[in-house]
Specification:
GO molecular function: DNA binding; DNA-binding transcription factor activity
Helix content: 25-40%
Strand content: 25-35%
Largest sheet: 6 strands, antiparallel
Order of helices and strands: HHHEEHEHEHEEHEHEEE
Protein name: HTH gntR-type domain-containing protein
Radius of gyration: 21 Å
Number of helices: 8
Pfam families: GntR, UTRA
Organism: Ligilactobacillus pobuzihii
Distance between the termini: 53 Å
Strand order of the largest sheet: 4-5-6-9-8-7
CATH architecture of the largest domain: 3-Layer(aba) Sandwich
Structural class: alpha+beta
Shape: elongated
Keywords: DNA-binding, Transcription, Transcription regulation
CATH class of the largest domain: Alpha Beta
Number of strands: 10
């Protein structure tokens, strides 16, 4: 079929050698350039989107998913080390950014209270943010910290600062962590933030961090698109 040939041409010219998450030319421009109808271009683009090589952005067109095009999934080392997300990404020479979705003080529910060994309705600091690698949303992370550890967290701009670094600066050093990973399907609007469909698999990463006195001080729950991330750890 002709759309498959056009799809290959688009991939070869614009996607395979892309070094950044940039916009593809418009349907109209691609149609004129390749001398085919816009419906053919549209079908080729939809096929590339289904393969997660490009993402459609409302009002902007299609963006190349650099993380996938380069076939290098983002490698997360948090599972087996005491390193923060941004520190880990920077070591891999990735460009990172963050968008805060929620930053507030709440009352702990029964589940969070149990994880943090506090009483239900105790005050906790809640930080939820989208993490980006090379402008691609790679993770939605939610952290819950008993407010008694640091009441000033709510006033910090976490779109520019790493929570991991701020905690260390305030004397909360990660001494031990209990972590797990499981595959789920999202039942919340989070899939919209990650440019996913409801059927796409998600890696749910949970972690409880402890001080050197075995006191839990952070519960973290992060959700990653399964096709964008690989977790690695080294056992010694």
């Amino acid at each position: 079929m002709i759309y498959k040939q056009i799809k290959d041409k688009i991939y070869d010219k614009y996607i395979s050698n892309s070094n950044k998450s940039e916009l593809l030319p418009s349907e109209r421009n691609l149609s004129e350039e390749m001398s085919v109808s816009r419906p053919t271009i549209r079908k080729a683009l939809e096929s590339l989107e289904n393969e997660k090589l490009i993402t459609k952005n409302q009002g902007r067109g299609y963006t190349i998913n650099k993380t996938l095009v380069n076939s290098d999934k983002y490698i997360d080392h948090e599972l087996g080390s005491f390193i923060g997300f941004f520190e880990d990404a920077n070591l891999q020479q990735k460009t990172t950014s963050s968008k805060v979705l929620q930053q507030s003080v709440e009352k702990a529910n029964s589940y969070i209270a149990k994880q943090l060994d506090i009483s239900k309705n105790d005050s906790i600091f809640v930080l939820s943010r989208i993490r980006f690698i090379d402008d691609i949303p790679i993770c939605i992370a939610k952290s819950c910290i008993p407010l008694k550890f640091n009441q000033g967290l709510v006033n910090i701009d976490f779109s520019k600062k790493s929570l991991f670094s701020v905690l260390k600066e305030n004397g909360l050093h990660l001494h031990k962590a209990k972590r797990s990973i499981e595959v789920i399907q999202l039942e919340s609007p989070d899939y919209l933030y990650l440019n996913l469909s409801k059927k796409d698999p998600i890696l749910k990463f949970t972690s409880v961090g402890f001080t050197d006195k075995e006191v839990p001080f952070e519960y973290e729950e992060s959700r990653y698109p399964a096709f964008k991330v690989r977790f690695e750890s080294t056992v010694k």
